[in-house]
Every structure is written in C-alpha cells, then in structure tokens.
Amino acid sequence: MAEFTNELMKWLSGGHSPWHTVDMAAHWLTVLTGIMRLRATLASSCALNRPFSVRRGGRYFVENGTFLAAVTVGQKDVIRIAAAHTDWPCMRIKPQPELISGGCCRLSVEPYGGAILNTWLDRPLGLAGVVLLRTADPMQPERRLISWDEPVMVIPNVAIHMNREVNKGVPYKANVDMLPICRTVQGEFEKNGYLVRQLAKRLQVQPEDVLSFELCAYCCAEPTLLGFEQDILSSPRLDNLSSVHACLQGLADAQGDGINVAVEPDAAAAAALASAFWKICARRAEHLAADRGSGSFRTALLDACLNGMLLSCDAAHAMHPNHPEYADFSCAPVLGGGVALKRSPRYSSDAETCAVIQGLCDANQIPLQIYMNRADLPGGSTVGSMASSLLAMPAADIGVPILAMHSACETMGAADQDAFVRLCTAFFQA
Questions:
Q1: Cα separation of 399 and 67, whole Å?
Q2: In the chain, which residues fall in CATH 2.30.250.10?
Q3: Who's near 390: CB < 8 A, 6+ residues apart?
Q4: What pTM was computed for the model?
Q5: How would you classify residue 338: left for phi > 0, otherwise alpha for psi between -120 and 50, otherwise beta?
Q6: Environment class of 289 (CB within 10 Å of its CB; exposed 0-12, middle 13-18, buried 19+)
Q7: 103 backbone φψ class: left, alpha, beta (φ>0; ψ -120 to 50)
Q8: What are φ and ψ of residue 193, in 5° steps?
Q9: 60, 71, 219, 250: which is closest to 155 by C-alpha?
Q10: Which residues have C-beta within 8 Å of that of residue 6, sequence separation ≥ 6?
Q11: What does the alpha-carbon distance between residue 73 and residue 79 come to, in Å, rounded to a whole number?
Q12: CATH of the domain spanning 2-87+236-429
C-alpha cells in the first residue's frame, strides 16, 4: 500500500493542470521507466504530425498538450488499451478576466467539469495552465507551461450575518459568487491586461508576446493521509489522477506480450484526440504493410481489436457513510474495499468484460467491488463510453471508490490504489 499511495501523492501534488499532468507523466515515463518519447526532432513537442515508426519489443509514448499515449509492442497482435482522462472539475479563467469591486481585483471564471461550487469557497487557490507566445511563424506559437505553486487567489464566502440561510442550502451563481480575488486595489490601477502582465512577468517575456492562455484555478491543499490508522487519503484531483497513475504504472510494470496502450486524454477532447491518434497509427501501419496486399493491415487491426479489450479508468462513487440512502442496496463500494467495477447502462461494462475483470482479480488476489448507481440516480459518462463507440472493442469501466466526487478535495481509501494498479498490471499482462 505504501509504495503506490506515496507515488500517487506525488502525482496529486504536482498535477496542477491537465498540461502539468501530461508533462509530469512524460518525465516519469522517460526517466523512471525508460519508455522512449517519439519525436522527430528535439524541437518537436509532439510526434502526432511527424513521421515515426515502432518495432516489436519497443516501448514508446507521444504527448501533445493534455493528451498522452504510451505503447508497448509485444509479439502478439492483441490490443489492450487502458484510458483515463487528465482533467478534473475546476474554475477556468476567462480571457480579459479582470473586474474591480470592493477594493479588490477579481478574475472572471467559468466552472468546468461539474464542480461542487461551495467547496471552492475560502480555500487558497493556485493558478496553472498553458500560455501561447508569439514567434516568427504565426502558425507555430510557442507553448509554455505556467504554474503559481503558491496561493494567489481566494473565493470569499458571504458572512452568515448577511446570509442567514446559507446552512439551509443556497444556490450559487457562477458569474457572481465564484469570482476569485487576486489583489487589493488602492489608488490608480490599470486593470486591463493585468493578468497578461503577470503571465509575462512570470515567463520573462513581453506582455505583447502573450497571444493566448488557458488557465485553471486549482486547490492548493496537499494530499494528506489521515485517520488513526493513516488509511484515508484526502486530496484534490483524485478524480482522475488516481486513474492516470494506475494506467501508466500498470503499463510500466506489466510484462505483457500484446500491444498495450495507456491513453490519457483531456476528457473534453477525448474522443477527437483518441480517434485522431488511432487513425494516424492505423494509416502509418497500413502504409508499412502495403506489401502484404490491399486492406491486409486493416483486417488484422480489426481482428486485434475484437480480440482485445478497452479498460476505461475513472473514479467510482463510494457509499457515503452519512448518506447511505444514495447508494444502491447491494452494489455499493466502500473505502478500503478494493477497486470498483462499474456497471450501468451509462458505462461500457457488459457481462463478458465483467467476467474478465472478475477472473483477473480472482487469479491475482485483487480485492474487487461492484458499483451500480441507484436506479433513479444515473451516473456520469466516462472515457470508455466515448472511446468504445469509435473502436470495435469490448470494454469495462473500473476505478477507485471515492467520496465527495467533484469537490475541491475528495477522499479515498489509501489501500485501494494498490488494488487499482495491480488490476491494470494484470490486465496488460493477461
């Protein structure tokens, strides 16, 4: 438990934005696993639009912004894919966001990903994301990651004296209640372009060279083990960095002989990016196999998919100790009980793939729980349901059970990450 929990906590601590998560994953794959980055030149940030080739026995990855795909190529033409999204609910900063009120500069934001809004109030918030800078070629702006590791914003609540009903449940207006303050304003202050000037200062460039940005406010709370037995993990971004870590760790640890792929996309662009990556790889592989006859590779590809499997990795709902009424009577995972296999019409799991997951867990002594939502409370969508519509491949949805999903801070059983990683490893090795 300690090894994978500690590793996960490093990912949670450093993954301040989806771009930072992918950057951290690329560094981890290169330095700690020896998996090779596919790129045409040292100046190229991504191999998706560059020539590349793979060989049997090779281990590779490509990345582009919020998307990363790692591949190990064995001797058997059987494809196994594990996918997890790299983003999470947060407050995205709008362009030209500066607003002045009450002696403070505020930033206009847009909630992203279905956040529980009130959990973001009165918390120190950092700022992280990507900035695009001017270059000599307008078609090729420079992409730079940026992060304030220290808190720079807070979204203040309204005092109970002015809002006596707050403990009865008060609706929050995103355009009013969720605007973070980032500085006090005394005397003369030029608000227009203030954030851009801060970005330029941080990156040591001129403000006029900042063309665009995509930034998110993130919760600065550090991942923390708690409880008298230190068996509970509280942290931002458990949904879904727990899955990103498990997918990549499982791929790195596995000694499988098939074609294994860990795909980590931004959920907003998951279908498009995964589809693009798949088509690029298929087109290049078919070109390489041209001497085998027209359509030979495409046929082999479809056969490999049908004989393969997709593992969709995303957090699951644990039974809430204070509100067990929200859970299904018989299929409700609990903290510390192991990884959860998710079944419902919204998920990609079916009887066959569930049998595979159960068999893998039985063979490897991995604790497994079953999650189904209460019949009148449908769950959310996952990467699996999107990706399986593009690939002729059976799929199953799995993840660690967590409490307070989409809160600024979420809670999971520390031991469950071990079960999650071991299942991903067993999946790639089978």
A1: 20
A2: 90-160+171-219
A3: 271, 274, 275, 278
A4: 0.90
A5: left
A6: middle
A7: left
A8: 80, 10
A9: 219
A10: none
A11: 9
A12: 3.40.630.10
The DSSP element (H or E) to which 125 belongs, if any, is strand 125-133
Burial label for 57, CB within 10 Å (0-12, 13-18, 19+), is: exposed
CA distances from 167 to 115, 156, 158, 161 (A): 19, 16, 12, 12
DSSP character at residue 108: E
Stretch(es) of the chain classified as CATH 3.40.630.10 = 2-87+236-429
Vertex 125 angle, CA 314 and 413, to 5°: 35
User: What gap in Å lies between CA 303 and CA 301, rounded to an integer?
Assistant: 5
The topology under which CATH files domain 90-160+171-219 is Aminopeptidase i, Domain 2 (2.30.250)
Of the candidates 12, 10, 70, 1, the residue with the CA atom closest to the CA atom of residue 315: 12
The answer to whether 86 and 244 are in contact (CB under 8 A) is yes
Mean pLDDT per segment of 10 residues, for the chain of length 430 residues? 86 95 93 74 45 74 86 84 91 96 96 94 97 95 94 96 90 94 91 95 97 96 96 96 96 87 74 58 58 60 76 95 93 96 86 95 97 82 62 87 97 97 95
What 3-state DSSP class applies to 246? helix
Contact 346, 379 (CB under 8 A): yes
CA–CA distance, 260 with 251 (Å, rounded to integer): 7
